[in-house]
Each structure stands twice: as C-alpha cells, then as structure tokens.
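User: Show me sequence and structure for the first protein, then do the same for the second.

Assistant: Starting with the first protein.
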Amino acid sequence: MSHYLVTGAAGFIAARVCELLLADGHRITGMDNLNDAYDPRLKHWRLDRLKAQANFVFHEADIAHAEALAPLEGQGFDAVVNLAARAGVRQSTENPWMYVDTNVTGTLNLLEFCRRNRTAKFILASTSSLYGADNPLPYNEAADTNRPLSPYAATKKGAEALCYSYHHLYGIDVTVFRYFTVYGPAGRPDMSVLRFVQWISEDRPVVIYGDGSQSRDFTYVDDIARGTIAGLRPVGHGIFNLGSDRPVRLMDLLHTVERLVGKEARIEFRPAHPADVPATWADITRAREVLGWEPRTSYEQGVGAVVEWYRANRDWLRLIRTE
C-alpha cells in the first residue's frame, strides 16, 4: 500500500484518480482549497464521496501558499500528484495573476516540498492548450509549445519547465500529462458537455462560440484517471498526451446530446474567442508505448453516462451555474 498526496482532490479529474487509487487499497491525502472558480456544489459532491472512505484524509489548503504544506511535512509520501489548477482558456484572460499563483507558484511549492521530503515521484497535470494554433494535427509531444494563446496555457508551460528543472537538479522522477478536453459525470460546468446537457434538458438556449465547426479530442474521465495512475511508474522525465485520438466537431456533440436527452436545442451563436483554437487532436503513441495506456470509453458511451448522471442528480444540477 502506497501513500499519495493528491492536490485538487475535490476537482473533476483528481476526485476520480483518488477513487481508483482508494479502490486499489492505497492511502490518499487529498488537498484542495475549495475555491469558487466554478459552482462549489460540484466540488462538495465529489469530496463527500471521498470522505466516506477510510483511507482518505482531507487537508483544506491552497498550494499557492507554501506555508499551507507545513502540516504535511515528513509524512513519507510515495508521490505527489499535482492535479490542482486554475483551468479554462477564456477565464484566464480575465484574471491571469490567479493562474500564475496556482499553476506556476503552486507547482513550484510542491516541487520544493518533494525536494525537502525526498519524495521521488511527481505528476503534473498539463494541457493540450499548449499546442496553440499552428502545430500540425494530430499533436505530438515534440511539437512547438512556445506560442501559447492564453495565460492558462502559458502558466502550464511554466509549470512544465519547472518540473524539468527539478528533475535535472534533484533527480525527481516526473510525469507530465497533457490532457485533452476531459468530460464525464461530475465534470466541470464551464465545459461544453455538461453545459449542453443542462441547457437542453432545462430548455435553455445553447450558446455556441464561433460556428460550431471547431473540433475537440473529447476524452472520458475514467480513461484520463487510469492514464494518470499509469504515470506513477518511473519514467525519468516524460511528457505524455492523454486523449481519445478521435476528435469530434462541436455541432456533432450538440446533436448527440439532443438525441440522448430527447430534445432539440435552441442555439445562440456568438463570436469565437481569440484564445480558442479551431481543433485539438492527440497523438497518443507515446502513452501507448511507454505507459501501456489507451482509451477504452467510446464517445457515445461517455456522453450517455453524463446524461444518465444528470438525470439522476437533476434536482440540484439544474441549478448549478454554467454561464
């Protein structure tokens, strides 16, 4: 049995990673500041499920504050899994300082924590947004990431660079994951899948930025969580794409949700945001070859699971903020 520190534990991906690790018999110390970046009811729903398990301990704190890690010194963690982040391309253009605090300073604080405590393994959640608009599809990990289109992507680039520095200087074994458009039950309300399900279910207008032709490599949360756990093995320093390798046009996603919900959408088109990219598509060859990972959940299965979860929890989900 291993003991892992998982940051962002009340978050979408981290909560599922914790659940899978707990199911395998490991001990988890979860850390989260429970901020209001999106509707906290989702965070508390996930966290309550974790708190019900015996091997889970929760520490409410912010990784952006180094002193918040002091109570965790000397606990002998086998790895730090840093899934805490300020996420979202558009929101990062409104308050970039907050993204620097969490994504850059927070990562630095955790790497220093690993150095002091001789924690040998560090995992970083990064993003496909690093690939920008000019790289050829599908995106390969060796592609140019020096032209990020948003502060969010830029801060993740900074976090990746810090990880390499600490690997080089102190021998910390680092796995960096560039996640591609993660969705699933209990997903973030600023992401299109949950938004579309709520808006169509509740007869609200569906807002589309751009003309809907943009495509995303939608990846189911269970697949992402399995890949993240696979990254706990020693890799030295490795960067891996985790995606479905099957991009879907936004309008096609909308039509799938319409069919599964059983209602037709009322669409409002708005101008595209300059920080958005027209397409994402993951080359997952490296994750297959090095980690033995590949996605298992089809797009239809995943969207169907979100619709079913929404129906089961509709009494409170219809009220969450998705604007």
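Switching to the second protein now.
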Amino acid sequence: MTVLRAHYDVVIVGGGPAGLAAAIGARDAGCSGILIVDREKEMGGILNQCIHSGFGLHNFKEELTGPEYADRFIRRVRCEPGIDILSESFILNISPDLRVTLMGSTIGLCEIKTGAIVLAMGARERSRGAIRTPGYRPAGVMTAGLAQRMVNIEGLLPGKRIAILGSGDIGLIMARRLTLEGCEVTGVYEIMPYCNGLTRNVVQCLKDFDIPLHLSTTMAFIHGRDRVEKVTVAPVADDFQPLPGKAWDVDCDTILMSIGLIPENELSRQLRLQMDPITGGPRVSSTLETSLPGVFACGNVLHIHDLVDNVSEEALRAGAFAGELAQGRRRPQDNIELQAGDNVRYCVPHTLSPDREISVYLRCIRPQKDCVLRLGNFLEKPLRLAIPSEMIHLTIKPEILQRFYGTTLRIDIVSREDAE
C-alpha cells in the first residue's frame, strides 16, 4: 500500500496539465508536502490522447505533441522532492476544515488533513442528450473525444464515413485525424454563424484537407435503428430552428459530437461553492481562491481554455497562491468587483485586488473586427479581431486598479469608432 502523510500543505485534485502545473507552483512557493490525486493510471490527463502537435508554443517556444508537453511537467514533478502522486484514486469528500477523504486500490479508505486544496479536475464533453438531437438512438453516435481515444490510444476506428456536429477544436482535429486514417469525413455542421474552434485548426484541419464546413447548419434527424445510416441536416433560421424545406440527407455510419466542454464540478457543488452560471465553474478571487477559504480552482474546471499553455500559466499561479496560504501567508482581500460589459460573455477572476499585477481572461459574445478592449475609462487594448472561440488575455497593472478601490470595474469590447 502507498504510505501517505497525515498532513499535506497542498492537495491537488487532478493530474492533468492544470494539476501538474499547480504542484510545481506550490513547490516553487516553498511547500514541502504536496499530494496530487488522480483517478487515471497515468498522469497527463487529456494530453495523453492528443498526439497532434501545436502545444507549448507559448511556454516552451517550440511545437510539441500533447504527450511531449505533459512529459515535461511529469518529469519535473517526479524530480521535485516533497511531491507525492496518488493515481487510480478518488476524493470522496472534503470537509469545511479541509479534511480530505480518499479512496483508492492501493490506499483503501483514508483521511488526511491539508492546508489548501487546488481543484484541477478538468472538463467533460457535452453529449447528444444535452442538445436533444431528434432521431433514433443507434450505435455510431459518440463524442469527438471518445473517438480520439479510440483512434489514438486503443487503435480502433469508429467508422468509415463520418459526419461531425459542432465545430469545437476536438471535432476539427478528429476530422483531420480520421481523414489521415482513410475515413471519409462528409463535413462539419455548426449551428452558429461562426466556427467555435481556433482559426489555426480551421485552416490546418479543414481547409488543408478540403473538408467542408457548413455554418448556420445543424442535424435535424438521425436515421438508423441498429447503426447510423444517414443524417438529415438543415440550415437554421435566426432563432436557430431548422428549416425543413431546405434540408438534405447525408449518408454516414458515424456521427461525432463536438458541441463544447463542461467543467467537471461535481466536487465543487458538493462543497457548495459559489458558481458562475456562465462559465460553469466556481467564482474565484484574484488569487484563484473560491468562496470556501483554502480551496482554489484552475484550468478547465474553472473555465474552458482553448490553449493548454494558458492552463499551465493559470495553474502555476493557483498552486503558488495555495502554497502561500498553506504556509500562513495570506494576501489582502479583494475589494474590486470585475463586471462583464458589452460583448463580453464572462471574465475570470471575478474580483480583483490592487496590491499586485493581475491576469484576466475573458471571451467575447460575438465576432467583432477592428475593436478595442476597454477597462473602465483608463485602459484600452486594440484588437484586430475578437472571436468567441479564442480567449482574450489582459494584464492589469496595480496602479490602474488602485483607482477603482472598493468599486465595480467594467470591461467592454467596443468598436474603434465608439472608443474614440
């Protein structure tokens, strides 16, 4: 059996890119007792099945595959003294005084005490049931992430003629991957009038392989009793309802759903944390601390990221703040409320403190060209293009925040003409 300490400075829930980076952040902050708990056998999370390149361009200044990116963090975590890794284990309960109940094949059932907890559980895919696609329930309908695991890890093909609903990044990447494996991808059908994946993935995965992208189009009916036989697709009106008179049938034996990710927050709800209905994750302060003192959140469990480099950067800060708290170093309380304004869907963190430089992440609601990101009346950042699929990062200096002490700070994305 794995021997655990009775007390850890920081316990990290999840061994993916966020959890690994949070452990390094806590170690750099001076903690000597850190525990990573993960339900999988191997560390790395979703990166283990992302064998395509494109990771690490920001953090390592080179292009890596998902396993290569994860390996760099895993090697450092394993080399750092004071970091324990507990795989194939679950956290059953966290009490308000930060007592953690664990269960695993090597430890049985046990309880440990910790000074701080970092939630880094990642996200899960939205499935067919979430959007109520009409039709039968045949074999061959699956999420794009499941198909990715089947092909890249299990060595199995989900089908030979594929239709993809939704234009999320995993769906775009799987369109390319399945084409390279000899499958025929009939097209990607997106209900919104714009693509929900990164621009580079649209170019590299669809345009370079002549895979059609149908915007403002959805699947109106799935045909097939035992196995998918075909799907009826139709353009949608302004209210996103299908237009039956313009529908057409597409023969296929497999449908991949790439319709977004949902933060994995069952444990957060069990802790009764204050949640943000827009992000699906907990509300956090500028130190990434949730409404329960001593519990921090980072990565896709907080809000959905499009780049793993941003996940690692955010998790390093969350781990460092958790480590400081575990050692008795608490930062000043936040006194500025951050509010999403015009064409801003959400912004994280939700509150700010003027005692240090703050990193803010946000997404726009609708695409907008030649615009300005405006923070109150004191800071403006020009943007060539703002699109919902690409997160915007803003760094705010403390001298600007001091002007808003004890007030609400609004962040907007406006046209250049309105800004002037």
